[in-house]
């Protein structure tokens, strides 16, 4: 089954241990939503995906990967 | 636990308790209830439930702080839509039963209470789907 994987946990670590709450505040979602995205339990909208990538200064495909 | 998940738990528990009492009282009566009796009992219990939910929501909001003042984010809105969609089908089935099928064979008090039960079950389904989505995750 296809799923969307992501590197958010790693990128948060590399961004000085940015917390889920801090990332959530910067893109306008709750800490719980960031946790759900990280765990692959929720796929964000395209808009939020781009916002997350922009926070880390990375292209979208370095943050999110389509896995089959 | 997210603020809106706590509110969904409060709403679900309050309504299950309130309407268990209502339907328990209605079904345990030896005589069929009058329309005025139904309105009075349902109104009283609904009002009590509303007061409990409002007071509980205020308490949860105070304890949750900033999170309670924030607008629902995209995932929370999507979860709410999923709950409402599931509840719609339950409500539709209940209304067809109460409004189309039962008038041919059942007395008014049974029709009214079936419609009320459909409303209660639909709202319970709404909250259960919302809670499952929060607990298991969107793709769970």
From TrEMBL, chain A:
InterPro entries: Cro/C1-type_HTH, Lambda_DNA-bd_dom_sf. Keywords: DNA-binding. Residues 18-63 form the HTH cro/C1-type domain. SUPFAM superfamilies: lambda repressor-like DNA-binding domains. Coiled coil: none annotated. This is Helix-turn-helix transcriptional regulator. It comes from Sphingomonas canadensis.
From TrEMBL, chain B:
The keyword Transmembrane helix applies. This is DUF2178 domain-containing protein. The keyword Membrane applies. Pfam families: DUF2178. Keywords: Membrane, Transmembrane, Transmembrane helix. Coiled coil: none annotated. The chain crosses the membrane at residues 7-27, 39-65, 86-105, 111-134.
